[in-house]
Description:
The protein is mainly α. The chain is built from 3 helices and no strands.
Amino acid sequence: MQVGIAVDFRRTDKSEEAMKRNVERLEAYRAKLVVFGKGQKATGTQVRGTVMPIVHAAPTIATMAITEEMKSFDAFNKLALLRHQHKQAGKCAALRHDAD
C-alpha cells in the first residue's frame, strides 16, 4: 500500500543537507503512520496538536575580540567612497580612453 505525500514543486532550497533532513523526517513519519484497510475498524484515539515538530539545530555564532583597527574603521565613509567610485567608473573609463 502506498501513502501519498504532497510535494511542493516551488521548492527553492536545493542543498543536499536540507534534502537529507527532509527525507529522514518523511521516513520517520511513514514509520509512525498507521494505515487501516478498507472496512477495518480503527482502534485507539486520534492525536491532536503537534505530532512531529520540526527540530532546528541551534546556529553557531563565532565570537571574537574587537581590535583597535576595527574600532577605528569608518564603514559608512568607506561604503560611500566605493559607491561614488562605482558610479563614476564609466566617466573615468571614458576619460582614460579619450586620453589614449
